[in-house]
Amino acid sequence: MDLSNNIKGKVIVITGASSGLGETSARYLAEKGANVVLGARRTDRLDKIASEINEAGNGKAEFVQTDVTKKEDVQRLIDKAVSTFGKVDVMVNNAGLMSIAPLAALRVDEWDRMIDINIKGVLYGVAAALPIFQKQESGHFINVSSVAGLKVFGGASVYSGTKFAVRAISEGLRQEVGGNIRVTTLEPGAIESELKHGTTHKESFAGVDEMYRTSAISSDSIARTIAFAIEQPADVDINDIVIRPTVQTF
Fold first, then answer.
1. What is the pLDDT of residues 46-72, one digit of tens each?
2. Active site residues
3. CA 24, 84, 141, 179 torsion: positive or negative?
4. What CATH number matches the domain at 11-242, 3.40.50.10330, 3.40.50.1220, 3.40.50.720, 3.40.630.30?
């Protein structure tokens, strides 16, 4: 079966789209003819990305300033997609924060922030898109977890907890919606992005920075993986994909 055009014309909403995995995926999917609706807090970045996508003349791009910790922002993002393109085919819940520190450091504000972005942000994405998917009787959630959602390492207890939660929510969602609504969870390892800069604990950042410096692979790898999941026939649901640099042991 030729899947080469199975992305063209699809409407894909992406959070955390101003840099890293979200930006690269938006550009890649638009090159394949998708219409992308981008959400993030930095509108200057979103404006530049959307303008460049539109100038390229393949897929179209729109954007909405979006803080995923605010459910009304995420709802506006979905509303923009529907009002502009008439539908939503894929919701990519990509926005995330990684703040690595020992629990004894008591970075409670960072715990709260990770829970708000990594867990509640995904739930707000589900809450905004699911009614549209149910009405359409089709749709696809792609939720970005992490290899830290498969395995815990010292200093990442809360981060891992949030990413384990993304996997649990995604699996529960898959079982509940079934049928014509697909659910894919991505568990990336060290991928080039701004994620490591969420760590403010000096000693922990040194370890994270070393891992990324020696191991990280291009965010293109995630863009291709997302495209792979989307382009499958409607009766194929790619549920879990773990993607690491070949040199990464964790």
1. 999 999 999 998 999 999 999 999 999
2. 159
3. negative
4. 3.40.50.720
